[in-house]
Write a structure and sequence with these properties.
mainly alpha
């Protein structure tokens, strides 16, 4: 059932287009740095001023650039469409007619969202590595701590950073899945999921609600940058992933409670 869900997901034109766009963002970022020479040291997003010295940083800079908007948007599209899309197409009743049941269907949709988060984050990293390798030299990587690590270790940490980013998006995926169970209009579910992400980001920038900041699911989205330190700094990453697990537990349970009691008319 999961294999069929993944095949159906990645055969959709819009999913393929989203992945191509995600790969294109860091690639075009590499082109822009190559043409302009890049920002002054310390200018622009994190890692961007290092891209011209080592192409590996194009992937990391791509993750920094896509995390606030592009990646959440794609996750909102997939999560918002998970249940509402089936209802909109009139296929939800057919799927529930199978012996699998509602809980298994919801679990399959959840697993599909997890896989998409991983693939999307890796697509960004891959696009950055391709652009970086084409336009800039590759070699030993200078970390944020000032020490150097091998190229293989740098690429490995980049892949690990992409996986951390994927984990950071799972809370939003759980929220989107819950909203998807609340409506039969996929566009509405997608918009609602994006709206929640924007609200969290706005609240994060408001000092008056600083007591909420540690609990906002967007608060640790850039924690993966600590992977480029020696020794590795796991504190912020651990807090971020544990927070995502909390959102998954709350909104995953809410989605299950809603979906298992929902009247399916389409």
């Amino acid at each position: 059932m999961l294999l069929a869900e993944l095949q159906a997901m990645f055969r959709r034109t819009r999913i393929r287009v989203l992945l191509v766009v995600l790969m294109a963002v860091p690639f075009l970022l590499s082109v822009a740095v190559r043409v302009s020479g890049g920002p002054n040291p310390g200018g622009g997003p994190t890692f961007l001023d290092r891209v011209s010295h080592n192409g590996v940083f194009a992937a990391l800079a791509g993750l920094v650039v896509t995390v606030p908007f592009f990646l959440p948007l794609t996750v909102a599209v997939v999560a918002g469409d998970a249940i509402a899309g089936e209802a909109s197409l009139g296929t939800l009743r057919y799927l529930l007619a199978r012996p699998a049941g509602r809980a298994r269907l919801l679990g399959t949709k959840s697993a599909g969202i997890v896989v998409f988060c991983v693939v999307a984050a890796l697509a960004v990293a891959l696009g950055g590595l391709i652009g970086g390798a084409i336009f800039f030299p590759l070699g030993r990587v200078v970390t944020l701590s000032g020490t150097t690590i091998s190229l293989a270790a740098g690429i490995g940490r980049t892949a690990l950073a992409a996986l951390v980013v994927a984990g950071s998006l799972l809370g939003l995926g759980a929220i989107g899945l819950f909203i998807s169970t609340m409506t039969d209009v996929p566009v509405g579910a997608m918009a609602g999921t994006v709206g929640v992400a924007v609200l969290s980001a706005v609240l994060e920038s408001v000092p008056e609600v600083s007591f909420l900041h540690p609990w906002l699911f967007t608060q640790g989205w850039l924690s993966f940058t600590d992977l480029l330190r020696v020794p590795l700094q796991w504190g912020a990453i651990r807090h971020d992933l544990l927070l995502q697990l909390g959102y998954i537990a709350v909104f995953g349970s809410a989605a299950w409670a809603r979906f298992t009691t929902k009247d399916v008319l389409a």
